[in-house]
């Protein structure tokens, strides 16, 4: 009888323990499974990437793992890194961006490659990053993903307005700061819509004739003429690579007149030398008659 009573008391005590004991660590770890899943999927997913590209991916994926927010304008402070965002007047979802520390698409790319290179080599918006003078190779939308390597930058938009940029991971995946109201994420590459192409970044020394523009909203042109089709406008002073220069249509602007135009291979476009810092005929840059523009 005593033995039986003891067994009942033991059973009651065991049930009480199970009901009132703290939640085990394994149960507590079930929080935020989606965030952990995205972080686990973020990394170099194909061979062939350079060491610098792998470092850029690691920096971006660290932000995914941290649950960092997309914020409109985020990442564009004096130095690379997360900043508080701004309200995008066209997007109601950006209401809380000024309260969130994070990145927009180009801010994330800037941060990732600053970590990779040890210097701020991709400061600017998506268009400036795609048209960087540090391009090691460029790929069109028609080429798809086949020639790409992890760390390449994917861009969406038009030559006049590239509005989104992301880092390719390989295996059809990318890491991106997509839109307000979301955290940084791993996504399938979107080749439909206005996918524009990709660029491979050279983090080492840059060869060629490197110059600086001045002014705001300075348009490059498809031909060396003010009447030619517009290609891309420099929103502010921009580092450019000049292939050659030649005398063509005279231009009068900003109190200057000059008939010299320079060909910019990264844009496949021309710009009047008025907006390039230096002499009217740039020192050391060859004449296009002896060094024709590349197609």
From TrEMBL:
Pfam families: NLPC_P60. Keywords: Hydrolase, Protease, Signal, Thiol protease. Residues 80-99 are annotated as: Disordered. InterPro entries: NLP_P60_dom (IPR000064), Papain-like_cys_pep_sf (IPR038765), PG_Endopeptidase_C40 (IPR051794). Residues 50-207 form the NlpC/P60 domain. The keyword Hydrolase applies. It comes from the Bacteria. Residues 1-25 form the signal peptide. Belongs to the peptidase C40 family. This is NlpC/P60 family protein. It comes from Streptomyces hirsutus.
